[in-house]
Amino acid sequence: MRYKALVMASIFVGSSLAWPALAQTSTKKSQPRTPVRRTRALPPPVQPVLQMAPEAVEQPGVAQPPVAVADPNILLIQESRPYVARTNAVQRFVDYINFGPGQEKLPLTLTFKNGKVENDEQTAPRYAWIRASVGGSSVLADNEFASKGKVSVDLTGKVGAGADQIIIQAGGITGATLSWAVTAPKVVLTSCKPEEVAPGDKLTLKGANFSTSTLDNIVNFGDKQAQVTQATPTSLDIKVPDDAQTGKVKVSVTLCGTQTQSIDVKVKAIPVLDSADLMEGPPGQPVVIAGKNFSNKPSDNKVLFGDFSAYIDSASPTSLTVIVPEMPNPQYNVPITIEVKGVKSKTSLMFNIYNRVF
C-alpha cells in the first residue's frame, strides 16, 4: 500500500513539472511552414561560336615589302596565313591588305585558295562556302568557288592607299583551310633605244606593265633621275639628264617600290668650247680652238662659223686647228659651234670676219 502511494506521488510530481511547459506551448500560434522547392540546375545556353583564327585578329597590320615569287613577271604584294576552321561553326576572319606607296594604282589580283594541296594530294579540307569583302565591298559570293579550289578576283581600282580591311565568312568542317594572296604584274624593262645618247637627248624605253602616268614611273639614269615625257603600258620616252655622267650608264625603272633589271646605255660627252687664239680674221685664216671632249679623228668633229663649215686641219681631245671658211664679209659676232659624233656643243664663241688685206 505504501509502495503504491509512492508511485502515485511520483507520477503527480512529474506531471506537475511538465504541465507548465505543455501549457505554454499550447498558447503559441502555430507558424505556417514555407515549402522548400527543389530545382534542377540547367546548363548555360549554348551561344553560336564565331571562331577567329589567331592570325586574323581585327587590328591594323604593318605594310610588308614586296616579295618575289616563282613567276618572274608577277609581284607578290601580300599573302595571308592559312585560316583554319577550329569548329564546325561559321568562321569569321578579319585581316588587312597593306599596300606600299602607289601600289593601289597597279593592276591588282586577289586570289583565294580553298583547301590545301601538297604534291597533288589534298592535305586539308575545303570550306563548303565562302563570302569575302574588301574595304566594305563584296568581292566574293557564296557559290563562286563551287568545286574549284582557287578563285581570282580583279581588285584594280577598288582599293585605296595604305591598308584595306578584308573580312571573310566561311562554313565548313573542322580543319577546313583558306588563304589569299594579292599580286600584280611586275614591271619589266627589255630595251633602250638608241644605245648611244647625249645629255638632253630623247631615249625610248621598251618593256611591259609600265604605268600610263608619267609621274608614277621613276627612271633611274645612273645616279640621276630622268624626266619621263610620255608613257604607255609598253613604252616610256625620257629626256637624258643634262648633267648625266658620260660613258656607260645603267638605266632602270622603278614603279610602286619595285625596280626592273638595268640596261646599259652609252652617254656621249658634250663638246665644250673654252677659247680661240684669235677673235677675228679673214676667210682662210687658221684659228686654234681650245676646249674638251673633242675627237682625235678630224672627221668626227664638225666646226661651224655661223652656217658655214670650216676645214679642220688637226684635232686632239682638247684642241682643234681650223681654217676660217669662205663666207660673205665683213660679219661681226659670228658664232663658232662644234659637233662631235653628232653631239652639239651647248656653248659657242664669237668671231668677227673681215675682208682679206692684200
The shape is rod-shaped
What percent of the residues sit in helical stretches (DSSP H or I)?
A: under 10%
Q: Terminal Cα separation, in Å?
A: 201 Å
Cα radius of gyration in angstroms: 47 Å
Count every beta strand, where a strand is a DSSP E run of 2 or more residues: 30
Number of helices: 1
Strand residues, percent = over 45%
Mean of all residue-level pLDDT scores:
82
Structural class: mainly beta
CATH classification, class level of the largest domain: Mainly Beta
CATH topology (level 3) name of the largest domain: Jelly Rolls
Main beta sheet: 9 strands, mixed
Describe what is shown at a glance.
The protein has one helix at residues 2-27, and strands at 67-68, 74-79, 83-84, 91-98, 109-114, 116-118, 121-124, 129-134, 137-140, 150-154, 163-171, 177-185, 188-193, 196-197, 202-208, 217-221, 224-232, 235-239, 247-255, 258-259, 263-267, 272-276, 280-281, 286-292, 301-305, 308-316, 319-323, 331-340, 343-344, 349-353. The protein is mainly beta and 358 residues long.
Describe the protein's architecture and organization.
The chain has 358 residues and is mostly beta strands. The protein folds into three domains: 54-185, Jelly Rolls (Sandwich), CATH 2.60.120; 188-267, Immunoglobulins (Immunoglobulin-like); 272-353, Sandwich (Immunoglobulin-like). The protein has one helix at residues 2-27; strands at 67-68, 74-79, 83-84, 91-98, 109-114, 116-118, 121-124, 129-134, 137-140, 150-154, 163-171, 177-185, 188-193, 196-197, 202-208, 217-221, 224-232, 235-239, 247-255, 258-259, 263-267, 272-276, 280-281, 286-292, 301-305, 308-316, 319-323, 331-340, 343-344, 349-353. The strands form five sheets. Strands 13, 14, 15, 16, 17, 18, 19, 20 and 21 form a nine-stranded mixed β-sheet that branches. Strands 22, 23, 24, 25, 26, 27, 28, 29 and 30 form a nine-stranded mixed β-sheet that branches. Strand 16 and strand 17 (224-232) form a beta hairpin. Mean pLDDT is 82; it is low at 1-30 and 35-69.
